[in-house]
Amino acid sequence: MAATRESAEIIGTLKKTEGTQTAVPSIKSLRHLILSSLGKRGATPLAADLSVSDKLTGMVGQRLFELLEKGSYMKMGKILDIYPSWKKFILYEWTDIQVDETYLQEIKAVLQEAMLKKLLHHVVWGEQEQAEGLLKLCPELLLLSGTAKGPSAGPARTGTAYQIALKEGGNEMMEMMRPYYEKLEQGEEQRVAQLKEIAPNGIPEMPAFDLNNIVAAITAASQEEVDAALRKEENNSPLCQAFNRFREQFDACSQAEIFFNPKHLSKALTVYDAQEKTWSGNGNCSRCHLFLRQVYGFEQRYATESYARALAQGVDYIVENNEPLGPTFDFRSGGGSYYPLTTSLGFDTYCSGTGELELTGPWFHEGAGGGFGSLCQAKNSSMRANFRDHRFRVLSH
Q: The pTM is what?
């Protein structure tokens, strides 16, 4: 049975939308495509009279794709348990769906893409519960590759869900995924192969961004230049030019990195710790404030989801009080959220160790770099469990 002109037009529309960032329009079009194909089963492709069975199947399909749009994966699972033919369809076993094979492969590709986009979005945004909901429905998604952009100012990531979680430093997300590889044929071998594909010798050593130039510029600047920089004035002063170069160079460095590098943030705090007494020796802390807001704060704009959640929750509380990492980007106090980004972070404010946007500092009990360095060590220790069967060198703080 050949696909109709209408169906071909729908497929063409779906292909045009595949490069877009939002998966929802594609899913809506896909639902139209699926229901259209179900109406063409049997000898009469455009049959107006559907059997009771076909009407029920169409209703189930419509409900499934409504739930996919909403991310209601648990409800999808319950429906699939009741209607096993649709479960086979979702899991790419096509024996119960009687349509043209070529047409069916088009549907399959779009369905896979829609579900994969959802999964990778959940991964880069740290939405672990939602990601797991999709993997419960279809662990085969772990074998597919795609691209997703998280909420930070950093780069988009390409790979499987597991590879992207590694690139983002999301060890909690990786730990969640591991049991679902066991549901796949040779799943553990597949997981290790994915790891070796992007890190055959472990994550390479990545140096922290060199802050010597911006530190020298802050130190040498006049008080008038420092005050103007705090007001974010573009006045072409040496300090203003130094900050513009710093932002441009740091962005280029971050965009080029395959793996998120927490050393940038840790190094910035170590530098601040070393400079704080010099910059505030006369009782004027404006240089300290400038560094925290527009150097450390600017680097915070590139923090991936798990580090951003830790910063918003308060690194001090996680390190000193052993609090588990929370699920949101909401600041611990003062209101607001780390992500989506605002123009304040990195220009007017930075996120402090107590989980709030600040104008001033210092705020760490054991020196500026201590708490964040301890956080990196704890994350590295947790991540090692994911690589106990493969040589892997984690990032030190």
A: 0.76
